[in-house]
Write a structure and sequence with these properties.
about 25% strand; Cytidine Deaminase, domain 2; Cytidine_deaminase-like; binds tetrahydrodeoxyuridine; zinc; Cyt/Deoxycyt_deaminase; cytidine deaminase activity; EC 3.5.4.5
Length: about 160
């Protein structure tokens, strides 16, 4: 037996002033989208903004449901909207802002596993990396250069 070591690298921005201008704008749009979250059950609101290579930005927020599993995360709301509206565009960057509606969330909140799997589908199909930036409602912003960095050992269509 031998060990298989998997490494990943993320980048930390201490605040929004350190971000490139286009990313800072995308974070602002994710913050705005977060304000439209429908999260009466968890009181945890998430906004996502996606920059496409046609220069369009698509946003989404989490949408909950009285039947809890029927709700959808912000990232998937946004990426499915992007796929539905601009099926030929490539996804360049995703910004995610997430946090409690009851208290400050100062640590970066990464996309959940199901959202990573959903984003992976698009990254695999378009054959170019998707940059992912995520933060709480304040504090550091983390950057991943690709979805693959957040989800090593991706299950994708090549295995079907
Ligand atoms: N949520 C997201 O929108 N994105 C994630 O990646 C994690 C969780 C939402 C789902 C639910 O509405 C609330 O946050 C609490 O889980």
């Amino acid at each position: 037996m031998k060990a298989l070591k998997i490494e990943t690298t993320l980048f930390v921005f201490e605040n929004e002033n350190e971000l490139p201008e286009d990313v800072s704008k995308l974070i602002d749009l994710a913050k705005k989208a977060r304000l439209k979250a429908y999260a009466p059950y968890s009181n945890f609101a998430v906004g996502a903004a996606i920059l496409l290579d046609n220069n369009e930005v698509v946003t989404g927020s989490n949408q909950e449901n009285a039947s809890y599993p029927s709700g959808l995360c912000a990232e998937r709301t946004a990426i499915y909207y992007a796929g539905a509206k601009y099926p030929d565009a490539k996804i360049l960057k995703i910004a995610i802002v997430a946090g409690s509606l009851k208290f400050e969330t100062s640590q970066p909140i990464p996309p959940c596993g199901a959202c990573r799997q959903a984003i992976a589908e698009y990254e695999v199909n378009q054959k170019t990396n998707i940059e992912i930036y995520f933060m709480g409602t304040s504090g550091n912003i983390l950057k991943s250069n690709s979805l693959e960095n957040l989800l090593p050992l991706i299950f994708d269509k090549s295995q079907l």
